[in-house]
């Protein structure tokens, strides 16, 4: 028998009164709730769904989604994680027609279910912005970290099918990060040096390794920007299983979290400049110069694209440059003229996808340069390609 | 009769294939043939299709759920799954593929059940029976 308590309405959904898709999705939510020891479900206001790239979910995933889309529809605003190709300029970027066809079919199945096909890992930059304290079901690890930490919303690290089920039922199992008592910090991290750029990813990578699934509380010399928090969280979530962190005087729960730091003996970690430099070196698998530079992991904000444009303006790059972002942010970049500046330098704004989920191993690149610790962590394993981790300026080779 | 917890509804009767080691469906099982392809696993080379799989737990990538679904579509999936402790990958995959599944058996099934035994798994009632 199941252990969780369901409301009368939920019982009906579980029994199939809202059709077979809702029935199956409720069964998934209840099973997950039972596994994690949840007492009940909680209504959600937003979902972010992973399991989009054909490279990761394959024919099995495509078939499941096509089946489900016959009678399923999401109940809350839902956005989609990056796909395996740029849905528009895939041919220009060198992706195969065979792969793209399957990819488009996957996106179409989600669209049929009412999921917004913005295909981005930064849904909070394209209007999927949960409010403080709201319960949500998000499944992209870097977005989970951002939503919990920077926005103060509440989500576990959902799996793709779990998040989709939650979107279709408008609920998720209430356990873990949905509960206040599960949001206490359990490691304090003091950064004893001024930091910028790729330092944040390196710090996140280092602390993620140390803390695993824990909740770090950071003290920086200066309050980080939202972009810097995005890089920090993405790295924390990729080397560890971090879903929430606090930053003193910056993130919305930090004052509340500080009480636990003061009251308890929370283990303390100090990070110096040489720790950061060592980690950066470890994140590169080669000393060679990259033939492809990928920035925008997680997907670039308009401000990041502005900085890329500023860096490459008037130069001719010898290496290919991809700036990964969402279709919405690209539209703003087009209007601001940043896209043109980047294209004039030989680069491209790539939408809907990224270096982690695209089959870049099928293209002719040998070494990928990234300014994201998350990408540096994943690319060698997922694509079997060498990676160099550094700031954009240091990755560029100029054609003089 | 051994009481269990329901994970994925349904009922099945069949021959047991048993392992004491967790299994990753992504990369560890060929969904076309239903054969275990992980050479470090004790079920290596054996077919789990059409049998009742007794396993401590799943492991590996979440994409494993989709693999289990594809096995169900290809008719190479286990008839039912009995886990000691279900985890999200295998549980979600079983529900997606409509494969009956239970966990938390009340007795020590590794002592009571052997490979080749015939059992019934009734997830709806939350129990299994050794025939």
Strand arrangement within the widest β-sheet of chain A reads: 12-11-10-13-14
Rg result of chain A: 21 Å
H/I helix tally of chain A: 16
Indicate the structural class of chain A: alpha/beta
Main β sheet profile of chain A: 5 strands, parallel
CATH topology tier name of chain B: Glucose Oxidase, domain 1
- Kindly give the count of domains of chain B: 1
Unreliable stretches of chain A, pLDDT < 50, 5 or more residues?
none
Largest sheet of chain B: 8 strands, mixed
Run of helices and strands of chain B: EEEEEEEEHEHEHEE
Shape of chain B: globular
Seen as an oligomer or otherwise, the chain set is heterodimer
Number of strands of chain B: 12
Q: For the record, what is the CATH homologous superfamily label of chain B?
A: Phosphohistidine domain
Compute the average pLDDT of chain B: 94
Shape annotation of chain A: globular
Q: In CATH terms, what is the architecture of chain B?
A: 3-Layer(bba) Sandwich
From N to C, what is the helix and strand string of chain A?
HHEEHEHHEHHEEHEHEHEHEHEHHEEHEH
InterPro entries (chain B): PMDh-S-like, PMDh-S-like_dom, PMDh_S
Enzyme class (chain B): lyase
Pfam family, one (chain B): AcnX_swivel_put
Organism (chain B): Methanobacterium spitsbergense
Written account of the structure:
The complex is a heterodimer of chains A (400) and B (131). Chain A has 400 residues and is of the alpha/beta class. Chain A has 3 domains: 8-180, 2-Layer Sandwich (Aconitase, domain 3), CATH 3.30.499.10; 184-281, Aconitase, Domain 2, CATH 3.40.1060.10; 284-395, 2-Layer Sandwich (Aconitase, domain 3). Chain A is built from 16 helices and 14 strands. In chain A, strands 12-11-10-13-14 form a 5-stranded parallel β-sheet. Chain A has a 4-stranded parallel β-sheet with strand order 8-7-6-9, sandwiched between helices. A 3-stranded parallel β-sheet of chain A has the order 3-2-4. In chain A, helix 3 packs across helix 5 (97-112), helix 8 (199-211) packs parallel to helix 9 (226-239) and helix 8 (199-211) crosses helix 11 (273-283). Chain B is an alpha/beta fold. Chain B has one domain (2-130): 3-Layer(bba) Sandwich (Glucose Oxidase, domain 1), CATH 3.50.30.10. Helix content of chain B is 18%, strand content 32%. Chain B has 3 helices and 12 strands, in the order E-E-E-E-E-E-E-E-H-E-H-E-H-E-E. In chain B, strands 1-12-11-3-7-9-10-2 form an 8-stranded mixed β-sheet. In chain B, helix 1 runs parallel beside helix 2 (88-96). Classes of the chains: A alpha/beta (400), B alpha/beta (131). Chain A binds chain B through residues 1-3, 24, 27-28, 31-32, 34-35, 51, 56-61, 63-64, 159-162, and chain B through 5-9, 31, 62-63, 65-67, 69-70, 73, 86-89, 91-92, 95-96, 126. Chain B: Residues 23-102 form the Phosphomevalonate dehydratase small subunit-like domain. Chain B: Its EC number is 4.2.1.182. Chain B: Heterodimer composed of a large subunit (PMDh-L) and a small subunit (PMDh-S).
């Amino acid at each position: 028998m199941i252990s969780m308590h369901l409301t009368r309405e939920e019982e009906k959904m579980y029994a199939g009164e809202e059709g077979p898709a809702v029935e199956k999705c409720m069964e998934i939510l209840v099973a997950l709730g039972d596994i994690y020891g949840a007492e009940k479900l909680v209504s959600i206001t937003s979902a972010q769904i992973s399991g989009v790239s054909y490279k990761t979910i394959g024919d099995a995933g495509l078939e499941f989604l096509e089946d489900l889309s016959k009678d399923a529809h999401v109940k809350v605003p839902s956005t989609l994680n990056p796909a395996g190709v740029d849905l528009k300029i895939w041919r220009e970027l060198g992706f195969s027609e065979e792969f793209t066809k399957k990819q488009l079919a996957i996106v179409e199945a989600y669209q049929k279910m009412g999921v917004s096909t913005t295909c981005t890992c930064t849904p909070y930059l394209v209007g999927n912005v949960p409010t403080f304290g709201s319960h949500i079901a998000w499944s992209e690890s870097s977005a989970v970290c951002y939503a919990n930490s920077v926005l103060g919303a509440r989500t576990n690290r959902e799996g793709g099918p779990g998040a989709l089920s939650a979107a279709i039922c408008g609920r998720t199992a209430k356990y873990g990060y949905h509960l206040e008592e599960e949001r206490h910090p359990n490691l304090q991290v003091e950064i004893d040096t001024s930091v910028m750029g790729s330092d944040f990813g390196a710090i996140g990578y280092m602390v993620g390794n140390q803390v695993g699934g824990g909740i770090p509380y950071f003290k920086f010399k200066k309050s980080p920007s939202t972009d810097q928090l995005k890089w920090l969280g993405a790295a924390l979530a990729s080397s560890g299983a971090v879903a929430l962190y606090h930053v003193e005087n910056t993130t919305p729960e930090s004052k509340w979290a500080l009480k636990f730091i003061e009251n308890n003996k929370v283990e303390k970690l100090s990070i110096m400049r040489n720790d950061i430099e060592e980690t950066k070196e470890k994140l590169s698998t080669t000393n060679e110069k990259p033939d492809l530079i990928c920035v925008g992991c997680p997907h670039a904000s308009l401000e990041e694209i502005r900085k890329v444009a500023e860096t490459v303006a008037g130069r001719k790059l010898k290496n290919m440059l991809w700036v990964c972002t969402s279709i919405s942010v690209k539209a703003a970049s087009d209007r601001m003229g940043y896209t043109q500046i980047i294209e004039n330098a030989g680069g491209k704004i790539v939408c809907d996808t990224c270096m982690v989920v695209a089959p870049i191993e099928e293209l002719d690149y040998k070494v990928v340069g990234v300014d994201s610790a998350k990408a540096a962590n994943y690319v060698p394993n997922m694509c079997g390609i060498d990676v160099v981790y550094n700031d954009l300026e240091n990755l560029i080779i100029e054609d003089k | 009769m051994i009481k269990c917890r329901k994970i994925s509804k349904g009922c099945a009767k069949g021959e047991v294939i048993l392992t004491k080691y967790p299994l990753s469906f992504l990369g560890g099982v060929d969904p076309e043939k239903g054969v275990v392809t992980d050479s470090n696993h004790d079920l290596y080379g054996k077919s789990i299709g059409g049998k009742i799989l007794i396993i401590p737990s799943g492991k590996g990538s979440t994409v494993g759920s989709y693999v289990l679904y594809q096995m169900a579509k290809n008719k190479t999936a286990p008839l039912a799954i009995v886990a000691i402790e279900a985890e999200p990958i295998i549980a979600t995959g079983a529900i997606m593929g409509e494969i009956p599944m239970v966990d938390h058996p009340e007795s020590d099934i590794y002592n009571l059940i052997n490979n080749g035994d015939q059992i019934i798994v009734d997830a709806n009632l939350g129990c299994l029976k050794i025939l």
